[in-house]
Amino acid sequence: MNDSQPDNQLTNILIVDDTPDNLYLLSAMLTEQGYNVRCVINGSAAIMAAIADPPDLILLDIRMPQMSGYDVCKQLKSSERTRDIPVIFLSALNEVFDKIQAFEVGGLDYITKPFEIREVLARIKNQLNLQSAKLQIQKLNTELEQRVRERTKELEQANLRLLHNASHDALTGLPNRVFFMERLMAVLAYTHTYPSSQFAVLFLDCDDFKVVNDSLGHLAGDQLLKAVAQRLADCINPNYTLARFEGDEFTVLLEQIESVDEATLLAETIQQALSKSFLLHEHEVFINTSIGIVLGNVEYEQPEHLLRDADTAMYQAKTLGKARYQVFNQDMHTRALTRLQLENDLRRAIDRQEFIVYYQPIICLLTGRISSFEALVRWKHPQRGLVPPNDFIPIAEATGLIIPLGFWVLENSCRQLKLWQEKSAQRGEIFDITMSVNLSVKQFSQPNLIEQIDQVLESLQLDSKNLKLEITETAIMDNPELASELFEQLKARQIQLSLDDFGTGYSSLSYLHRFPLDIIKIDRSFISNLDSMEKNLEVVQAILNLAHHLGMSVVAEGIENQEQLSLLRLLGCELAQGYLFAKPLDTEAAETLFFSHPKW
Ligand code: C2E
Ligand code: CA
Ligand code: CA
Q1: Residues forming beta bridges with residue 113, ordered by sequence position
Q2: How far apart are CA 360 and CA 372, in angstroms?
Q3: Which segments within 56-106 are labelled E, that is strand?
Q4: What percent of the chain has pLDDT over 70?
Q5: Per-residue pLDDT tens for 510-563?
Q6: Residue 336 pLDDT > 90
């Protein structure tokens, strides 16, 4: 009954009275009004009827034999099934009626006999309305409670989702960097409380991941990352924390370990697991990983420092040839710092004019005379002294500083050659030497290289025939089309080209005939043990044959003794360079040597 204007047809009323006349009167009256009426004549029958089919309202006589109306009401109120049925007491006017007791046992109202029809109906209606209103409120309350419960649950779930999203990576579902760093912070704090506890961090980076993205597309790259994440998760003890740190980098936190062996063992397991191929859109893909390991201890104050060192170790693993792991040690940190320092110093070195060029002669073996000088740059570091190029050229290449540095060397060595040329002229001597300048891969692929060379030669009034450029195989192989084009332009200017360090790089002989090279420089490693290693002798012989067949000359690099020189002369090598003749010399020493007209 949820209508506030109850339909009498649907309203059941139970009348309880031991006086049949009363029963008859009331029932006739209410039936006429359309109510469904049931009548019983004593208390126990009333209770049974109410339990069997709870009515909407009970009219209950107070004075009955056996069980009084009060007792009936009390019992009805004590049972859940009948508790809420409104009870109106019936009492005779002449009877002693205890209203207080009537209300105490749960009666809601009372009607006195003899019945006044309008009063009876009004009171019944009143109670039914009240009951209906009460039920409605109850129902609304229940609904409201239900909604609040549901909403709370939804909010809780949304909160959990948000919390999860903030700390997890959407692609792989793994914990993310934020999560990892928080966990690491907690573990570090624990270690500060219990200094004997040990933990480790693994920093894992996929080798050449870019190749997958570039060749198969980013979607395939994403898929591969998911697959890698899955394989990693399969390797990892649930007590450890595996996270996707960034891009193709993953980290693992190993808590409460006994020794470093646990970390290296895990690194081996991971590399083993990842060494099997992945299937991506029907392509079989292989991916290697380099792993850096750092052991955590109380000396670390900040989680970032652990990551930094794990990253340094990872970088070291990559440098040593990828697909391996390295455990961090303090030397690595020192080296990384030195490199960083060197990088910073290098940026300022050009402006501060800390570079100088040394010159090493290249000898023509036919005449025994100097045929050329190779310009070799040196860095006069204000604190470190003379820094050899192998220590800073790679940094200059990695940072792009090689471009201005290379240009500086080109300009300075050409200027020097011009000066020597002028001095020769003043002395009335013939001048026919060239300057060999090294060009790095980066410079070689620089769009305005030719322009710069032209500009230098032009401003110095130096004949382009006097310039030789030394490039490595990598410069050609990295971009053969560009190399071809450049070669044409250099050829047009009669600038000669040497292929440096031959034998150490690709050494693919097949491309040699495609490029108009003038000179091949056989790397020092083949010359140094020429006399003792027969194989080297054969290689040098083969290179000489090939070069001559293609119309190129050969420089033997790194000649240090007379035997090597004799052998190379015997083999028909036309040019040579090495400590036997002279080390790289500063301007003054080179000049003295040159004007002394040595002959070997
Ligand atoms: P490179 O072009 O192969 O230069 C020859 C290197 O071999 C020089 O080392 C030279 O000192 C060394 N050398 C010459 N004869 C002998 C010998 O008989 N025995 C031994 N043990 N070594 C000998 P350096 O000057 O330290 O240069 C190292 C490398 O640095 C060069 O190798 C070159 O690749 C690079 N480099 C030097 N200057 C420049 C430059 O201006 N630009 C560029 N891009 N690279 C440069
Ligand atoms: Ca060289
Ligand atoms: Ca060389």
Answers
A1: 92
A2: 8
A3: 57-61, 87-92
A4: 97
A5: 677 788 899 999 999 999 887 777 778 888 998 999 899 999 999 999 999 999
A6: no
User: What CA–CA distance (Å, rounded) separates 82 from 102?
Assistant: 17
The model's pTM: 0.61
| Cα dihedral 113, 114, 115, 118 sign | negative
Residue of minimum CA distance from atom 22 in ligand 1:
558
| From 356, 393, 399, mutation site for ligand 1 pocket: most ligand atoms within 8 A of C-beta | 393
Dihedral (Cα; 489, 491, 495, 496), 10-degree rounding: 130
Cα 335 to middle of ligand 3, angstroms: 26
Would you state the structure tokens that stand for residue 198, as one six-digit string?
Answer: 């040990």
Nearest CA to ligand 1 atom 34: 438
Dig out the tokens for 4 from the structure.
Answer: 């506030």
Per-residue pLDDT at 5 exceeds 50: no
DSSP character string of 402-415: HHHHHHHHHHHHHH
- Pocket probe mutation, ligand 1, options 372, 376, 520, max atoms within 8 Å of Cβ: 376
**What residues are in contact with ligand 1 under a 6 Å CB criterion?**
360, 375-377, 388-390, 393, 406, 409, 438, 440, 470, 500-501, 524, 558-560, 577-579, 584
For residue 528, the ligand closest to its alpha carbon is: 1
Between CA 29 and CA 22 the distance in angstroms is: 11
Rounded Cα gap, residues 34 and 121, in angstroms: 12
Which stretch of DSSP H or E encloses residue 325?
strand 325-327
| Look-up of token digits 């690099």 | 557
Tell me the pLDDT tens digit for each residue of 218-245: 899 999 999 999 999 999 988 999 999 9
